[in-house]
Description:
Helix content of chain A: 55-70%
Helix content of chain B: 55-70%
Strand content of chain B: under 5%
Number of strands of chain A: 0
Largest sheet of chain B: 2 strands, antiparallel
Radius of gyration of chain B: 23 Å
Number of helices of chain B: 15
Oligomer: heterodimer
Low-confidence stretches of chain A: none
Distance between the termini of chain B: 87 Å
Amino acid sequence: MGFPFENASWDGVSGVIFVGGAGGHTLVYSLIAIGICVAALFFGNGIESTKYKKHK
Amino acid sequence: MEEQLAELAAQVAAMEAKGNMTNTMFAETYYYLSIPLMIIIHAGFLAYEMGASRAKNALSSGVKNILAFAFVIPAFYFFGWWVYWGFPTGFSLSEGPNGISGAAYANAIAWPWGESAAYMGPNTEDQIDGVFWGAFTLFAATTASIMSGAVIERIQTVGFVILAIILGGFSWTLAAAWGWHADGWLVQDWGVHDFGAAGLVHAVAAFFALGVLINLGPRIGKFNPDGTANNLAGHNMPFTATGLMLIVVGFWGFLMACLVVGGEAWSWGGNFTTIYGTPTNLGALTFNILMGVSGGIIGAWLFTRDPFWMMSGALAGLISVASGLDIYFPSLTFIIAIVAGIMLKPAATILENMGIDDAVGAVTVHGTMGVFGMLMLGLFASGYPALTGEGAPTVSLIGQLVGIVVFVAIGFSTGYVSSLILKMVGMLRVPEAAEIAGLDTVKVPAQAYPEGIMASPPASQ
């Protein structure tokens, strides 16, 4: 990923310091994370529905 | 005019002195409060282990856990603190570049006798060493608790306490001296960065436990003659799951103690920093701890739907991102943690298929995920300075790999050798008849459930 500042030193560095500091990366990571949440709910609901069908 | 200026200067000096004292008291109180928070980790491990034991072993598992906590404290007082300050540069015991390590330095501040005892007891001119030592002592006690769960229901009490003293007083402390201390050779030479101790606490403790498990062997009935495993279910899953949540609570104390408070002579500057002097703050920790816990739970839920693994997933998620809690972007933290939660159960099954009876999945949760967490930092934070200052070493995948190898080696070798010695002298495993009868009946002068565990019928209306 690389250090987003000119020199690999903390001297004079302030503000945003997180890994993936570029704007595009934060959007990509966030979209992936949101997608995983939605997929998890979808997947979980599928399993739950299957369990209920066995107990009707 | 001159009198007014002098008076003003005196007032400024007085205000400055008050400001400094307020800062000092804040720093002292900050670390002091991290200690009871970390004790919640032990309350959690206590509940977790007792619940994960069968009813016949519930109290003996508790006794073992309580004694680990009690014995690690004096061990860290009498020699563990010295190890942390003495060994950073390696076995040469020489002074490091920051001048705060080596045998001479440790002799001056970390022995509780002679002149250095001034730093190891009440002292009105020293408001930090006591609380700083206390926070590190609780890190040490945590390592012993991590090992404690893995070995329940068949280990001898005193043999276990000896192992806890070695792990809490020496093994993890050596890893911390090398990979956490600013003079540590892993930090200086390889740029190892492990902010929240995924490797130097969790992996060291877990691989120590693995070394012990190999010599200890599985519980009777765990494996069939064909090698397949049986599930020896604990007697109280709700207690276990609640204990795991308490561990998550306690980790807020553990991780707040990983920060260095600014503004003191021993600080890296005027603000919060990591132990490496690199910038971060409580906000960074808050974002990433919560996202890590959340990701781990969801990941484990996806493939297990079992509250034990879901709460273990919370720990796995947290440990998998612990190395970079100071610099991760929270959405990235969530993704790493969810992968850890997904990996958790399959990793535990692999270990079980190898014939290792880790009763609570400690090797997987703390070891596999500790290694995974250090590796992820090498992938995502490559190029970030591992220390503060010009010319500081930078984080790299190779450096993190070196750190992993060293931490695993320290944990496994010390755990394996010490448990092998205990096995040879007959102090490791309880006799077969005692294990079958149940350790509470054999050696605990109290009953967990004197009236049985039958549910009472509801009162009539």
